[in-house]
């Protein structure tokens, strides 16, 4: 369902994604793990037509995001890592706008909006402007919105960042349900090893823009001789802390952005 | 089509909800109208040009439309900062539709804002002449709104931060306003200034407004309409193109 071959993205001198190749089968839940600034989000941005790769080949459902962006956009849904709501609109309006953009028929739209807002306990606040929401509520709304239409591929970029365990549980239950009943292929990134272990069929660990290992959780543990996925992760990526803002890749990215136009 | 409509509606809703901003953005045109209108009035009258308030009111209406429409286009920058832009960029909708929806939304609110300014002008003593003055003026208001909303989107697609915004304000928007003849007649000017006023799109808009509202067109109403319509189409095209190039 997702095919990536020798994918490279450079920002100036820095190779944010450096010769990455992987495949995700239809109906699979695939997790991308990696320290901050490893290239997870950059990879997702390229797959979701937001960023053009420097070189390499990609295909989503057999289609190239660079050559046929619109057809690719019809096939996926995404929950972004950082906020993407309109704060001036209400929760319901944000949901409805999304539904219209994704061509969800009116009646289905109304039903699903109600279902999801209730599921993520936002129904009572549906007519409040999003700018009045707390961080957790905004995050819940982002997730609810991402699940409004049923795509072939669902990208979840650190969806549970800053969420309480209740909401995390709701999210994963719902995602598993989508995966099992509708056959939705899921591509997720997370920092929580337990989530990756529980939700994903297969895991790839990425560091400094390169995939350092991939396989099931059991395979990764076996490969590194660690007794937990976290142990395997640390064995593969080292114990040094990466700070995204002072990380050279992020800094270069910022510089490149500043000078790009 | 549904996408164009829903994005248009978003712009209109955002506008209607920001009451404070509506009033605040009436402040600047009002200042020009009252202070300049009454301040320069005596000099203007002595020069044998009649009432300055009559003269400047169409210019002030054009100014209101210019600022509102260009800022709505640059609102793209806010959407980028607050992240909402990504939501529209990954949507399975042609980017041209997204751009059209936004631009028409911006043009609509600029029209509303221009109408509010016109009402204030009339309250202040401005008198449009003739029965067809207002309907005809609305045509030019719409043309100005579309030209500059599209230009705003074009600029907004290229801007990445607030510093860029200041730059655009000082080196594009203010010159467009001051060179447009909104405040002074475009006659007997030094050659260089005259040339500059002729490449300013707003000159044609102000001329059209003044022609329709007080019967004082220097360039000519049909010429104004043609120039604005052509520029509007070109800016829409360029805006769509630059919008389609946006990367996050």
Features:
heterodimer, A: alpha/beta, Rossmann fold, 6-stranded mixed sheet, 10 helices, 40% helix, globular, B: 248 residues, 11 helices, 81% helix
What number is the mean pLDDT of chain B? 91
CATH class of one domain in chain A: Alpha Beta
List segments of chain B where confidence is low: pLDDT < 50 over at least 5 consecutive residues: none
Compute the separation of the termini of chain A in Å: 34 Å
- Order of H and E elements of chain B: HHHHHHHHHHH
Oligomer: heterodimer
Strand order of the largest sheet of chain A: 5-6-7-3-8-9
- Name of the CATH homologous superfamily of one domain in chain A: P-loop containing nucleotide triphosphate hydrolases
Give the helix/strand class of chain B: mainly alpha
Mind telling me which CATH architecture of one domain in chain A this is?
Answer: 3-Layer(aba) Sandwich
Radius of gyration of chain B: 18 Å
- Report the β-strand fraction of chain B as a percent range: under 5%
Structure description:
- The complex is a heterodimer of chains A (261) and B (248).
- Chain A has a domain at 23-39 and 71-75 and 152-261: Rossmann fold (3-Layer(aba) Sandwich).
- Chain A is built from ten helices and nine strands.
- Chain A has helices at 40-47, 69-73, 91-101, 106-119, 135-146, 165-182, 193-199, 217-224, 229-237, 248-260; strands spanning 2-11, 14-24, 29-33, 55-60, 76-79, 153-157, 185-190, 202-207, 210-215.
- In chain A, β6 (153-157), α6 and β7 form a beta-alpha-beta unit.
- In chain A, α3 crosses α4 and α8 (217-224) packs across α9 (229-237).
- The longest helix of chain A is centred in the middle third of the chain and has 18 residues, at 165-182.
- The two termini of chain A are 34 Å apart.
- The model of chain A has no long low-confidence stretch (mean pLDDT 89).
- Chain B has one domain.
- In chain B, α4 (52-82) runs parallel beside α7.
- With 248 residues, chain B is mostly helical.
- Chain A binds chain B through residues 45, 48-52, 70, 73-74, 76, 78, 80, 82-89, 93, 96-98, 100-103, 129, 257-258, 260-261, and chain B through 2-3, 5-7, 10, 13-14, 17-18, 79, 82-94, 158, 160-161, 247-248.
């Amino acid at each position: 369902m997702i095919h990536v071959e020798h994918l490279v993205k450079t920002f100036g001198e820095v190779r944010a994604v450096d010769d990455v190749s992987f495949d995700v089968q239809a109906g699979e839940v695939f997790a991308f793990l990696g320290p901050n600034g490893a290239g997870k989000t950059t990879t997702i941005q390229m797959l979701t037509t937001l960023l053009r790769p420097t070189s390499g080949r990609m295909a989503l459902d057999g289609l190239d995001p660079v050559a046929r962006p619109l057809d690719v956009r019809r096939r996926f849904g995404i929950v972004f890592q950082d906020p993407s709501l309109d704060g001036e609109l209400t929760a319901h309006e944000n949901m409805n706008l999304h539904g219209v953009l994704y061509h969800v028929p009116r009646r289905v739209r109304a039903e699903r909006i109600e279902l999801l807002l209730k599921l993520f306990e936002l129904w009572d606040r549906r007519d409040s402007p999003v700018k009045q929401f707390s961080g957790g509520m905004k995050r819940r709304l982002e997730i609810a919105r991402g699940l409004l239409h049923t795509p072939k591929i669902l990208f979840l970029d650190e969806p549970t960042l800053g969420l309480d365990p209740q909401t995390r549980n709701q999210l994963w239950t719902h995602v598993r349900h989508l995966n099992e009943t509708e056959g939705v292929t899921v591509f997720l990134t997370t920092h929580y090893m337990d989530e990756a272990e529980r939700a994903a069929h297969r895991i790839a660990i990425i560091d400094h823009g390169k995939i350092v290992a991939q396989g099931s959780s059991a395979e990764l543990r076996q490969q590194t001789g660690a007794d937990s996925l976290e142990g395997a992760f640390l064995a593969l990526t080292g114990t040094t802390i990466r700070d995204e803002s002072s990380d050279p890749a992020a800094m270069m990215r910022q510089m490149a952005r500043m000078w790009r136009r | 089509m549904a996408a164009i409509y829903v994005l248009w509606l978003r712009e209109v809703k955002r506008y209607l909800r920001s009451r404070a901003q509506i009033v605040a953005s009436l402040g600047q045109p009002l200042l020009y109208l009252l202070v300049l209108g009454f301040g320069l009035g005596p000099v203007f009258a002595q020069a044998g040009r009649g009432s300055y308030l009559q003269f400047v009111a169409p210019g002030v209406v054009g100014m209101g439309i210019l600022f509102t429409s260009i800022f709505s286009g640059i609102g793209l920058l806010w959407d980028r900062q607050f992240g909402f832009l990504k939501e529209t960029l990954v949507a399975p909708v042609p980017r041209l539709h997204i751009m059209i929806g936004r631009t028409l939304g911006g043009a609509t609110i600029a029209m509303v804002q221009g109408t509010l300014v016109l009402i204030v002008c009339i309250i202040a003593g401005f008198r449009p002449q003739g029965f067809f003055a207002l309907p005809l003026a609305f045509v030019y208001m719409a043309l100005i709104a579309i030209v500059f909303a599209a230009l705003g989107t074009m600029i907004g697609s290229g801007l990445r931060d607030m510093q860029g915004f200041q730059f655009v304000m000082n080196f594009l928007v203010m010159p467009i306003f001051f060179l447009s003849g909104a405040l002074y007649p475009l006659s007997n000017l030094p050659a260089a200034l005259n040339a500059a006023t002729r490449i300013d799109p707003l000159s044609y808009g102000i001329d059209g407004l003044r022609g329709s509202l007080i019967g004082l067109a220097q360039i000519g109403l049909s010429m104004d309409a043609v120039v604005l319509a052509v520029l509007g189409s070109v800016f829409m095209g360029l805006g769509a193109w630059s919008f389609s190039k946006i990367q996050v």
